[in-house]
Amino acid sequence: MPDFIPILTAAILSLIILIIVFGGWIFYPGHVFKEGSRTILLGENFEVIYTIGEEVVANLEGRTSRDFFSGEDKRVEFNVDKYTDVSEATIRLKTLDSNYYGNLIIALNGEEVYRGAPLGDKMITFDPAILERGNFLDVKAENSGWRLWAPTVYDFSLDMDVIYEGKKTQTFEFELSNEEVINAEYARFLIFGKREGTGHLIVSVNGEEVFSGYTTVQNNFAVDELKAGINKVELFTEPNTKYDITSAKVILFF
Question: Are 60 and 115 within 8 A, CB to CB?
Fold first, then answer.
């Protein structure tokens, strides 16, 4: 038997003894990795919310008129407390009477949102980014131009509706080593919390949805979604639902 065979046999036996004694240590070049699990705390005591609502925030009616020399404008001031959550804004305009000598002009916070000669009912949509917490809406008639004998006149009424869409998505990041990603067999979300509403809690990892359901969450997901370096977890929900999360964790099993 060549001289190296006894040496090789002794080395293999020593390796087996070390694995048994030290509880499953696995050796890689330049790294020692232990079987078991790692728990990563994402966050505690936070909210995930998605609300939708509609509200009439302003009403205005009356007569506006203008000729070459003078005019009468209409203004209403109003507040929109959740103006940053407004996703749609609409003015429902009704023209009751007019001689149509000129256009009707509507401006919100000094920015024109409509100019025209409306007949009957008209829906006017505008960019909700114009809205502020405190607002003013002006309605005025364009002058009648060469028709010096009479002003432009509009009798009108209008309502302004806004649709709120308040969405709070929670985002967390955690870092994994290359060895952890290679040796992870599976991963699990462990999320505790209370729900208000009927919508699902949705969890994504690095942009891929891995869970949709209700708390409490004890859900395994494929480690294929994980990567070495920074990983991003997002928690969000469906409309008209709120989750009060007391604890959210990721557990890796090796």
Answer: no
